[in-house]
UniProtKB/TrEMBL annotation:
It comes from the Eukaryota. This is 45 kDa calcium-binding protein. It is found in: Golgi apparatus lumen. One of its GO terms (biological process) is calcium-ion regulated exocytosis. CDD domains: EFh_CREC_cab45 (cd16225). PANTHER family: 45 KDA CALCIUM-BINDING PROTEIN, RETICULOCALBIN. Gene3D superfamilies: EF-hand. The keyword tRNA-binding does not apply. Keywords: Calcium, Glycoprotein, Golgi apparatus, Metal-binding, Repeat, Signal. Residues 1-30 form the signal peptide. It comes from Periophthalmus magnuspinnatus. Residues 38-49 have a biased composition (Basic and acidic residues). Belongs to the CREC family. InterPro entries: CAB45_EFh, EF-hand-dom_pair, EF_Hand_1_Ca_BS, EF_hand_dom.
Length: 357
């Protein structure tokens, strides 16, 4: 795992550098105005200068509010190409793209995808999501560090945050400077408290209460650092744990934290939801199958760079489409189950499969 991380860091650095140069040589005004309209559904609450930690993290199995990430397997199969497979996009083009992906995943070119090959692919695509997050973080950081000195104080951030919530930026800044009461409503106050907590967690030792770009990245994307991953797990357990033993039983896991659903009763009777959660709890998250999920088990589960998880995911993905039961994926299988892998259906999956090569 450490090797993976190192490799990733090195690749990341060069890719980030390259993209940075490319982006900067682009005329910002030349971008089409409706670019954001083409974005994926999971990104619809993100703009380019998002300064709030997102609830949903691409390539991470659980969301910050304790929900399972429904799009996880598609995210780790498609990587940054997620947006390419819109539901209304051209089936012929999707088919072609899926065939291209198949030939890439099939590393040894025997026209069949093994669990190992899929695992390797999943790890690669997970890295892509990290790289994307890092790139987005550049814009986000610039938005909270307008003077560009490379450091952001908690007060600077909290002013930007309140401004994004509709407060008058100058007024808030003035009040904070003079130590006046901001007169925030309870909800805003609560969000601010939890952001502050996270802020101090993201401040690497020696703590100077300033975040640089890298620290800001782990503030927005806790999946990037071991310490923040632990913090995220602690937050989730705190929200789901009812008896305060810092562990989760099945019943704690299948009831949602208070306040995250509008209609708790309606959610409780959603059998599918409960069944899915129960299955995930028993089969995957509870690693030693003793009926209790500890923080360590949850951390293991949520770590996007965990190779063991990636192998399990690979086997699961193969099993879904493995019609001839050879524990491998062939092209016709993946085309037939296109909707599972890409989110978009191919009507004519069986057409001339063998002519494509
Ligand atoms: Ca192969
Ligand atoms: Ca408990
Ligand atoms: Ca356990
Ligand atoms: Ca097969």
């Amino acid at each position: 795992m450490a090797v993976w991380r190192k490799m990733w860091c090195r690749n990341l650095l060069s890719v980030a550098l390259l993209l940075f140069v490319v982006l900067h040589s682009m005329d910002v005004n030349a971008r089409p105005a409706n670019m954001s309209a083409a974005k994926e559904k999971t990104q619809d609450n993100k703009d380019e200068n998002e300064i709030l930690p997102p609830d949903h993290l691409n390539g991470v199995k659980m969301e910050m509010d304790g929900h399972l990430n429904k799009d996880f397997h598609q995210e780790v199969f498609l990587g940054k190409e997620m947006e390419e497979f819109e539901e209304d996009s051209e089936p012929r083009r999707n088919r072609k793209k899926l065939i291209e992906i198949f030939t890439k995943v099939d590393f040894d070119k025997d026209r069949s995808i093994s669990a190992k090959e899929m695992q390797r692919w999943i790890m690669e695509k997970t890295e892509e999501h990290f790289q994307e997050a890092t790139m987005e973080n550049k814009n986000s950081f610039r938005a909270v560090d307008p003077d560009g000195d490379g450091h952001v104080t908690w007060d600077e951030y909290r002013i930007k945050f309140l401004a994004s919530k509709g407060f008058n930026e100058k007024e808030v800044a003035e009040k904070i400077k003079n130590g006046e009461d901001l007169k925030l409503d309870e909800d805003t106050q609560e969000v601010l408290e939890s952001l502050k907590d996270r802020w101090y967690q993201a401040d690497n030792p020696p703590a100077d209460q300033l975040l640089n770009e890298e620290e800001f990245l782990s503030f927005l994307h806790p999946e990037h650092s071991r310490g923040m991953l632990k913090y995220m797990v602690k937050e989730i357990v705190r929200d789901l744990d009812q008896d305060g033993d810092k562990k989760l039983t099945l019943s704690e896991f299948i009831s949602l934290p208070m306040g995250t659903v509008e209609n708790q009763q309606a959610q409780d009777i959603d059998d599918d939801w409960v069944r899915e959660r129960k299955k995930e709890f028993e089969d995957v998250i509870d690693g030693n199958h003793d009926g209790i999920v500890t923080m360590e088990e949850l951390e293991e589960y949520m770590d996007p760079m965990n190779e063991h998880n990636a192998l399990n995911e690979a086997k699961q993905m193969i099993a879904v489409a493995d019609e001839n039961q050879n524990h491998n994926l062939e092209l016709d299988e993946i085309l037939k189950y296109s909707e599972y892998f890409t989110g978009s259906k191919l009507m004519d999956y069986a057409r001339n499969v063998h002519e494509e090569f």
